[in-house]
Amino acid sequence: MPPTPSYLRSRQLLATPLSHIRGVGPRLQQVLAKANLTTVEDVLYHLPHRYEDRREIRRIAQLRDGRQEVFVGEVLASAETFTPKARKRIYEVVVADGTGQVSLKWFHYRKGWMKKRFAVGTRAVFTGEIKRFGLVREVHHPDAEILGAKSLDQIMAEDPLSFGRILPVYPLTEGLSQKVARKIFKQVVDQFAPLAVSPIPTDILKRNQILPLAQALAECHWPENPGAHLDLETGPGRARSALVFDEFFFLELGLALKRRGVVLEPGIAFAVTHKYTRPLAQMLPFRLTAAQRRVLGEIKHDMMAPHPMNRLVQGDVGSGKTIVALMAALVAIENHTQVAVVAPTEILAEQHYLQFHGWLEKLGLRAALLSGSLSNKEKSALHEKIRAGEVDLVVGTHAVLQQGVAFQRLGLGIIDEQHRFGVLQRGLLRHKGENPDILVMTATPIPRTLSLTLYGDLALSVIDELPPGRTPVKTRVLSESRREEGYRLIKKALEKGRQAYIVYPLVEESEKSELQAASAAAQALQAEVFPQHRVGLLHGRLKPQEKEAVMAAFKNREIDVLVATTVIEVGIDVPNASVMLVEHAERFGLAQLHQLRGRVGRGAEQSHCLLMQSARCSVDGKRRLEVMAETTDGFRIAEADLEIRGPGEFLGTRQAGLPDFRVANLLRDGRMLEAAREEAFRLAQNPAFLSHAQYADTRQALMDRWGSRLELATIG
Ligand code: ADP
Ligand code: MG
Q1: Residue 137's beta-bridge partner residues?
Q2: CB 673 within 8 A of CB 449
Q3: I need a surface site. Which of 154, 320, 346, 348 has the fewest CB within 10 A?
């Protein structure tokens, strides 16, 4: 065993280019580089995505149904055929070993290649899950390693890496076989894993019983003593956990320092004078809920502190975030500063403007909408007013963040529906003033594991209570053949003087045709289904004034049925609407459906949500819709969504700023995230952390990984 190097030396050693490894020539180097593998460290962290148990090779007669098995067989027949029912092309290979035979099937393949690879007489080691259909046993898409002329014993003796043990199966890279990958990677792991040193302080590693990094890396590639319970999908638990902890720890440490950095900066210490907040409270037709009051208290506490506020308010759809934001805005205005409200879409900005403007006007204050539809002249006039401090509160989309917009004195920035913005926008808003307070509001319930990651640098307030008198929306999933039932329910509501939404999905690639579908549907609904009522159409292609006109007509009950694309997803508030029918519901994400459904059930009487499920809906799609029917709890819905779709898709695109983890999985590793977060935040609180030599390695690692991304240039 070489002596354990220092962290800095270890870091240098692991940066060794792969070209220095024996057996890695220029061609292989290129192949590896394509998979982003250029250094030793890249390979160490290029973990198997599953494992194969080759400790035991079974005879075909002894294969166990439903198990992942390894067996050797000789090809008896090999040909393309068709499935009996659907007449789909498949490739079938029958193999035998003297004790029995088994049928191997491929549903995606290249015919010529298959024919050559599995010619009659070929012998190979196969691995796959054994399925039984009556008397026939099948393996679909098995892994195969061709044996050639040699006997199995010969092969096993020559290639001990591939047999009699648990094998890593690496994510496939074009031009690199598992066999070569195993050989090269094993060499790298054997030589370099022992040199890996964790930059995490040892007391933290000990307290959390984290395996030494060197051992964890080696084990993850080649589990040596996995015991009986090695999970072939996730691999050796403790070894993997060590790597997961490492990733989460540095993520959270960065976030913790970022938060601390902001917290320590000077900001505006607002005074709570009640000059406007008290009159507003008296004007409101309702009392704030206990949750609203608690959250408002937390916000006021932050605003009074001499450091910038950086707070996230999370509240389910309809929990009353707007009023809380308005109250915070009034505190800022009481202190002679301005407020900026940033919304993700024009229509939501307009909606907010209408609400804020209404209340502010009653208090003798001035609100303005920075709309995309303003003429250049109007825009510069408004810019001038904002700069001169003649406007107290400005609402708009990201237009508010643009360069031409300058405030006389910005005290508070409010970002609504944060999940559509990134950390970047928060920074832009901050720079519109001198460390103004920032309040972020989101209706998307984010599972705790995700919010720790995405909003780790924000303090969190949760409005966990809905205003009283709401009746939970009744949700039903309807197949298309039962559409008439849906229409009957809508008609019944309309006869009682209520209103309804009918929502169409808008898929980006074919926006135009979807739009045509929505317009055509609106016409057909008016003519054939609701001739007695007024049907309106709202979609994203309308000009802002047109949208506003349609929304206003709906609000004033001049429209009974609003046919809409998802532009109504966020923030629209028409309490008299009590039914929503969603077409092609399976095309929506769960979080999105939850938002949509939140548009009804805003009054006291029973509301309904009807989810139309197409005949071609997938199994996953059906599961998602069932979740919607089962619960109205946004957090449960979000967790289910995350579980079914995975974090990447759950958040839409990558824009959310979710870091790429090499090993960690936010779904599986939630507990580890919390442990890592606790340790990281404690370390960040420690005054010695930024200065003591004892923590130099940890600081260096932090800079290496997140330096530019977290704007932590000042530490190190
Ligand atoms: P969201 O959190 O989804 O943004 P809103 O702020 O739009 O919710 O509030 C939803 C509705 O509930 C609005 O009509 C609002 O006026 C009303 N509301 C807010 N707070 C209360 C309360 N404490 N009691 C009764 N109604 C309330
Ligand atoms: Mg809202």
Answers
A1: 132
A2: yes
A3: 154
Give the residue, by CA position, lying nearest to ligand 1 atom 14: 573
8 Å CB contact between 475 and 597: yes
Strands 131-133 and 68-82: unpaired
Bridge partners for 280 per DSSP: none
Atom of ligand 1 nearest to the CA of 292: 23
Single out the residue of 97, 61, 56, 57 nearest to residue 76, CA to CA.
97
Q: How far is the CA of 396 from the centre of ligand 1 (A)?
A: 21
Please state which of the ranges 28-42, 220-234, 590-604 shows the lowest mean pLDDT.
220-234
The whole-angstrom separation of Cα 401 and Cα 611 is: 37
Closest ligand to C-alpha of residue 323 is 1
- C-alpha of residue 289 to centroid of ligand 1, in Å: 10
Residues near ligand 1 with C-beta < 6 Å?
Answer: 286-289, 292, 315, 317-323, 443, 467, 573, 602
* pLDDT of 376 over the 60 cut: yes
Bridge partners, residue 248, by sequence: none
Question: Looking at the CA of 314, which ligand is closest?
Answer: 1
- Tell me what the mean pLDDT of segment 39-51 comes to: 91
Atom of ligand 1 nearest to the CA of 319: 2
* Top-confidence residue, 257 or 242: 242
322, 465, 471, 597, best to mutate for ligand 1 pocket (most atoms within 8 Å of CB): 322
**What pLDDT shows up at residue 587?**
84
pLDDT of 436 > 50? The answer is yes
**Ligand 1 closest atom vs CA 288:** 23
Task: Average the pLDDT over each of 102-106, 185-189, 247-251, 576-580 and give the range with the smallest value.
Answer: 247-251
In the predicted model, is pLDDT for residue 569 greater than 60? no
Protein residues within 5 Å, CB atom, of ion ligand 2? 571
If you average pLDDT over residues 111-118, what whole number do you get?
A: 92
Q: What pLDDT is attached to residue 656?
A: 44
Nearest ligand, measured from the Cα of 466 = 1
Q: Residue 341: which of 367, 315, 307, 377 has the closest Cα?
A: 367
| Long-range CB contact pairs, 387-393, < 8 A, 24+ | 389/338, 390/366, 391/338, 391/366, 391/367, 392/333, 392/338, 392/339, 392/360, 392/365, 392/366, 392/367, 393/329, 393/333, 393/338, 393/339, 393/340, 393/341, 393/356, 393/360, 393/365, 393/366, 393/367, 393/368
CA of 296 to the centre of ligand 1 (A): 14
As a whole number of angstroms, the distance between CA 214 and CA 196 comes to 5
The 10s digit of each residue's pLDDT in 498-508 is 999 999 876 55
Q: Distance, CA 373 to ligand 2 centroid (Å)?
A: 22
Instruction: Report the C-alpha gap between 382 and 465 in whole angstroms.
Output: 38
Residue-averaged pLDDT of the chain: 86
Q: How far is the CA of 262 from the centre of ligand 2 (A)?
A: 27
Rounded distance from Cα 368 to ligand 1 centre (Å)? 22
